[in-house]
Design goal:
By secondary structure, the protein is mostly helical. Helix content is 69%, strand content 0%. It has one domain: Ribonuclease iii, N-terminal Endonuclease Domain, Chain A, CATH 1.10.1520. Helix 2 packs across helix 5 and helix 5 packs across helix 6. The protein is globular. The two termini are 30 Å apart. 28% of the residues are buried.
Length: 145
Amino acid sequence: MFVERTEEQMPEVPVLRQIAPVALAFVGDTVFDLFLRTRIVLAEKTSPKLMHLHASQYAKASTQAKMARALWNTLEEEEQDVLRRGRNAKVHTIPKHAEVADYKMATGFEALLGMLYLQKKEERLWELLCQGMKAVMEDIENGKE
């Protein structure tokens, strides 16, 4: 699932902290998209068009914000800090269909995903994504969506 990186290609953690939160979110957006697509391909045997439609139901700020809020108390201090920095980062455009608070929280969530990916913490990354998706699915089942 993840690209192999050599130690020479991988910046040290203090250097990663200098990466702008929106840049981490840029990476995290792709990580989230790959997570969704992987789950859908493994769970469904359908056309690419229907897979895309299914993915687009979850690839939105409100879903990522719900995941971030559900995970907050399970995050380590450093993870909370990255999410907070991403949430508070200046974003210049917000999609019309997104609430500002959700969009900011989603940006923070994506920053966290980007940081974990760059730190090569794939196990923790997958754990958080699965826990977050479980919380979203429970909300849907309970009619909170």
